[in-house]
Each structure stands twice: as structure tokens, then as C-alpha cells.
Amino acid sequence: MSLRYALLGLLSDGPASGYDLLRTFKHSLANVWPATQSQIYTELTKLADTGLIEISDEGPRGRKEYTLTAAGLDDLRTWLTTTKPKPVVRNEALLRIFFLGVVPRDQALAYLADMEERSSAAHEELTELERQIDWDDSNLSRYGRIALEYGERLTATNREWARWAIEQLPPED
């Protein structure tokens, strides 16, 4: 369901083709809400069929540009203001950590070191993404920057936590 609102939200910034939306997903939303080309185009068809978006232009090779309708904007605003995000209850990585005591210390250490490495890599990717984006005063840019900051802080915290967790392991036998 959130793919629907991600597309409506992106179209609230202005008309875009499916290709444009796919690029935005790959470069901006992939860390928040990944989507494949087939998922995006399927959802665009559904949104057009329900009148939440409309085809505003057609170009060569079947290129379609989509525009948010008033009904689509109302639906997006309703979703933003009247529903609460579902809490993430399951975390497989933390479940595994809970039981790391059943494997040898070197395997537990390797698992935590991998978490630290992945957090560091994700943090570096977000930092690089921040440098590459041409930030402006648009809503998507402003609030996208806020979302990116959340990701940067979260990955930095995860990296620091993994370093701390490694120090908590019992000494070697």
C-alpha cells in the first residue's frame, strides 16, 4: 500500500513519467521504500484506473507522463494525516544477536563486525547521496533531506552500537 503513496507523493511535486519515477526511486527512495520497475508501472496503472492520477502527456515509444489529480492529492493528504505507520515488530538481525551465545566467539564477532561494516557502508552511501543531490526549496527536496538525515543518523548509530556490542563479547577461551 505504501508504494501507492510514494508514487502519489512524488507526483505531488509535478508530472513525471514512469521512467522518471523509477529513477527517483533508485536514487532517493531505495533506502526507504525500494520498488522494482514492474511494481511501479503496475501501480501507476492502478492509480490511473482509480482516477488518482492521470496521463497528462504521451510521447514516443509509449512514454506516458502522469499527473496527480485532486482526488489523488486528497488521498495522499488523508493517508498522511489520518493513518499511523505500522510499527516494525520483527527484526531478524536482532533475533540472531539474541542467540549469538550458541555459536563460537569468532562467529559471533564476525556477525557483529559484518553489521558494523554494513552500517558503515550504508552511512557512506547516504553521505555520498547527500553530496550528489541538488537541494532546493521544493517540498520534496526539503523533506527528502529530512528523511536522508534520519537515515544518516540511524546508520551512524547502528555502526556505533555494533562497535560497542563487539566490546561486550566475552574474552576468548
Give a brief rundown of this model.
The protein has 173 residues and is mainly alpha-helical.
Structure write-up:
With 173 residues, the protein is mainly α. The chain has 2 domains: 2-82, Winged helix-like DNA-binding domain superfamily/Winged helix DNA-binding domain (Arc Repressor Mutant, subunit A), CATH 1.10.10; 92-168. Helix content is 65%, strand content 8%. The protein has 7 helices and 3 strands. It has helices at 2-11, 18-29, 37-49, 70-82, 92-98, 105-132, 139-168; strands at 16-17, 53-58, 64-68. Strands 1-3-2 form a 3-stranded antiparallel beta sheet. A hairpin with a 5-residue loop joins strand 2 and strand 3. The longest helix is centred in the C-terminal third of the chain and has 30 residues, at 139-168. The radius of gyration is 21 Å and the shape is elongated. The termini are far apart. The model has no long low-confidence stretch (mean pLDDT 91).
Number of strands: 3
Under CATH at level 1, the class of the largest domain stands as: Mainly Alpha
**Unreliable sequence segments:** none
Rg, rounded, reads: 21 Å
Principal-axes shape call: elongated
Provide the β-strand percentage band.
5-15%
**What's the helix count?**
7
**Quaternary arrangement of the chains shown?**
single chain
Main pleated sheet: 3 strands, antiparallel
CATH superfamily of the largest domain, by name, is Winged helix-like DNA-binding domain superfamily/Winged helix DNA-binding domain
Examine the coordinates and then state which fold CATH places here, giving the name of the CATH topology of the largest domain: Arc Repressor Mutant, subunit A
Series of H and E elements: HEHHEEHHHH
Category by helix and strand content: mainly alpha
Instruction: Quickly count the domains.
Output: 2
Helix content: 55-70%
Task: State the end-to-end CA separation.
Answer: 50 Å
**Average residue-wise pLDDT:** 91
* CATH architecture descriptor name of the largest domain: Orthogonal Bundle
Strand order of the largest sheet: 1-3-2
